[in-house]
Write a structure and sequence with these properties.
207 residues; 3 domains; 5 strands
Length: 207
């Protein structure tokens, strides 16, 4: 099991990352909560990882903290919730807000996340209620995880930030027309980086 990687960040195209470690490039997928705190490409980065082994592929997922990884591992234990849906949940809602939804039986907020229907939302609430304590931290810890680490710096705004944001939202599970509408609703989209644009679009989707 690969539990942690430390190396040079070569590429970051949400939700995918490429990290060089001793000349070997490791491809990972990460939630937007991790992307928000990433340094610029060419910088050193440390990620806590979770490896999923399937018959047709070995998939590596990266997280900014052990708490975030613990939340991911807890989510994929829920019946019907796979790694892709867990990443979408981590990307679209803060851990503190998710905990509130579970405690308040708030399915209305959860169904706004991609791939989550009413039945899945209800199952998440029932099964996660007793598992929240497994995350190993307080709600304030989870909120800090979702805002990114303080030392991270945003990359310069790419000319095709809108296109990259659209691609990332689709990869997270949103349908292209829906992802496009989410982006067009963001004020000042032309002045935002890819990460900032995705963050604003996701925030608007669940508000």
């Amino acid at each position: 099991m690969i539990g942690r990687l430390q190396g040079t960040l070569l590429e970051k195209q949400p939700p995918s990352l490429l990290v060089d470690i001793g000349g070997v490039g490791y491809e990972l997928e990460a939630p937007m909560s991790t992307f928000y705190g990433l340094p610029e490409t060419g910088s050193q980065v440390t990620l806590h990882t979770h490896l999923v082994v399937r018959e047709d592929a070995h998939l590596l997922y990266g997280f900014a903290s052990q708490t975030e990884r613990a939340m991911f591992r807890t989510l994929i234990k829920v019946s019907g919730v796979g790694a892709k849906m867990a990443l979408a949940i981590l990307s679209g809602i803060s851990a503190a807000e998710f905990a509130r939804c579970v405690q308040d039986d708030d399915t209305a907020t959860l169904v706004k996340l991609p791939g989550i229907g009413k039945k899945t939302a209800e199952r998440l609430i029932v099964e996660m209620r007793d598992r929240i304590r497994d995350w190993g931290g307080s709600e304030s810890d989870f909120a800090a995880v979702m805002t990114g680490s303080p030392g991270g710096t945003m990359a310069e705004i790419p000319a095709d930030a809108t296109k990259e944001a659209l691609t990332a939202l689709v990869a997270l599970g949103y349908k292209p027309p829906e992802a496009s509408r989410m982006i067009t609703r963001v004020e000042g989209a032309d002045e935002l980086s890819t990460e900032e644009l995705i963050r604003a679009a996701l925030k608007g989707a669940v508000s």
